Amino acid sequence: MTTTVELTRFRVRPEHADRLPAARSGMLADFRADRSGFLGARLVRLPGDEWLDIVEWRSPGDFAASRAKGANLPGIRAFFDLIDELVSAEEGTTDESENPA
């Protein structure tokens, strides 16, 4: 199964970093309740106050529909509000042939 992967790199001010995990929980709950095709997500802390958000979607259409909704729910908005600067945003696909089950 091929999935769509959203890769978003962003900066959070050091004084907000401790609030990110709680806000993340709220965002993921809202995604599960409101975003068709949401499969899961991983958040990676990088050096220099940067983070990498890796989100998997069932299809490019599901990802596009999610982007169109933006921060439409409180949990999503609370997470986005902690982001100080967007560094990069990319979309790709998995190649499941490399990792057979």
TrEMBL record:
Q: Which GO terms describe its molecular function?
A: monooxygenase activity
Q: Where are the transmembrane segments?
A: none
Identify one Pfam family in the record: ABM
Alphabetized UniProt keyword annotations = Monooxygenase, Oxidoreductase
Q: Where is the ABM domain?
A: 7-68
The superkingdom of the source organism is Bacteria
* Keyword Oxidoreductase tagged: yes
UniProt cross-references to InterPro entries, sorted A to Z? ABM_dom (IPR007138), Dimeric_a/b-barrel (IPR011008)
Specify the protein name: Antibiotic biosynthesis monooxygenase
Organism, as annotated: Nonomuraea indica
